[in-house]
């Protein structure tokens, strides 16, 4: 028996995190076995920088809807690995502008065939589940954007 599953909706966040962790670990393992020095957690930042060019940490955070500290952590790791370059904005020394390095661009080129396979396999896996999981996630995200879980819980507490 899986204790977390037995908690039902009470453990929703934990189940989603567990699923996310498993997918990330599996994909990172594939990268390693393909001799690619790359972590799955960097993908979104790399893909965004490839598409948009140079962005600030705040712009990356806003675009991906991830926390500022998470982006700072990812970009520090990516900088250490040589995948990005960063410079301070000439007009605002507090603002760091980040872009892919030549090595980062080359890695993205190497990743493209593998990313196509990952996308194809994700789509097949989701199809096997027999529901439009991505649409459901979008609806759930929109719903929390309208009214956060914090607001929902505290509102219920205050009604008592």
TrEMBL record:
<dbReference type="GO" id="GO:0003700">
    <property type="term" value="F:DNA-binding transcription factor activity"/>
</dbReference>
<dbReference type="InterPro" id="IPR036388">
    <property type="entry name" value="WH-like_DNA-bd_sf"/>
</dbReference>
<protein>
    <submittedName>
        <fullName>MarR family transcriptional regulator</fullName>
    </submittedName>
</protein>
<dbReference type="GO" id="GO:0006950">
    <property type="term" value="P:response to stress"/>
</dbReference>
<dbReference type="InterPro" id="IPR039422">
    <property type="entry name" value="MarR/SlyA-like"/>
</dbReference>
<feature type="domain" description="HTH marR-type">
    <location>
        <begin position="9"/>
        <end position="142"/>
    </location>
</feature>
<dbReference type="InterPro" id="IPR000835">
    <property type="entry name" value="HTH_MarR-typ"/>
</dbReference>
<dbReference type="InterPro" id="IPR036390">
    <property type="entry name" value="WH_DNA-bd_sf"/>
</dbReference>
């Amino acid at each position: 028996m899986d204790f977390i599953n037995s908690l039902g909706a009470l453990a929703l966040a934990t189940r989603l995190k567990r699923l996310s962790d498993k997918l990330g670990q599996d994909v990172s393992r594939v990268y390693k076995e393909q001799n690619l020095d790359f972590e799955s957690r960097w993908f979104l930042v790399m893909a965004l920088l490839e598409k948009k060019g140079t962005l600030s940490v705040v712009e990356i955070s806003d675009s991906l809807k991830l926390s500022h500290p998470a982006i700072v952590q990812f970009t520090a790791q990516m900088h250490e690995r040589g995948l990005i370059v960063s410079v301070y904005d000439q007009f605002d020394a507090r603002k760091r502008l980040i872009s892919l390095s030549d090595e980062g661009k080359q890695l993205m080129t190497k990743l493209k065939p593998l990313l196509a396979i990952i996308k194809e396999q994700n789509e097949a896996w989701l199809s096997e589940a027999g529901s439009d999981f991505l649409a459901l996630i979008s609806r759930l995200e929109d719903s929390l954007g309208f009214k956060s879980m914090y607001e929902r819980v505290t509102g219920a507490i205050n009604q008592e």
